[in-house]
Amino acid sequence: MARIAGVNIPNQKRVPIGLTYIHGIGRTKALEICGRVGIPLERRVHEMTDDEVLRVRELIDREYTVEGDLRRQVAMNIKRLMDLGCYRGLRHRKGLPVRGQRTHTNARTRKGPARPIAGKKK
């Protein structure tokens, strides 16, 4: 099992799909990495040589922000917005949608499960 950026990559998956298990690498970046390292897109993770795994690992470490560093960077960006007190920061602080979605109905993912209001009847 290949271990890249602290993540175990599943053996039976194709290499571009396996790379997407790393936080911060999606389909586009995975295809770009395979092209730059010279790995055919049909190759499976367990078929990769140690040299190819090493080249992929070095490329990701050198060029991309992934896993813990990326999570820390995103958290710091959100914290900065909250400290500024800007509109987006206030929405983060209150746990409401940040990007202009409606909240009269829906938004249950951000707001959590619906809480009944005592005495409200139609």
User: Total helix count?
Assistant: 6
| Mean pLDDT reading | 92
Strand count, sense and closure of the main sheet? 2 strands, antiparallel
Strand pairing plus helix content: what structural class?
mainly alpha
Unreliable segments (pLDDT under 50, ≥5 consecutive)? Answer: none
The largest beta-sheet arranges its strands as 1-2
- N→C terminal distance: 59 Å
The level of helicity is 40-55%
What is the percentage of strand-forming residues? under 5%
**Rg value:** 21 Å
Number of extended strands: 2
Describe the fold and architecture.
A hairpin with a 2-residue loop joins strand 1 and strand 2. This protein has helices spanning 15-19, 27-37, 50-63, 67-84, 87-94, 108-111; strands at 2-4, 7-9. The chain has a two-stranded antiparallel sheet. Helix 4 packs across helix 5. 14% of the residues are buried. It is mainly alpha-helical and 122 residues long.
Quick description:
The chain is mostly helical and 122 residues long.
Question: Could you list some keywords that capture this structure?
Answer:
122 residues, mainly alpha, two-stranded antiparallel sheet, 49% helix, 5% strand
Strand-helix topology:
Layout: E1 2-4, E2 7-9, H1 15-19, H2 27-37, H3 50-63, H4 67-84, H5 87-94, H6 108-111
Antiparallel strand pairs: 1-2
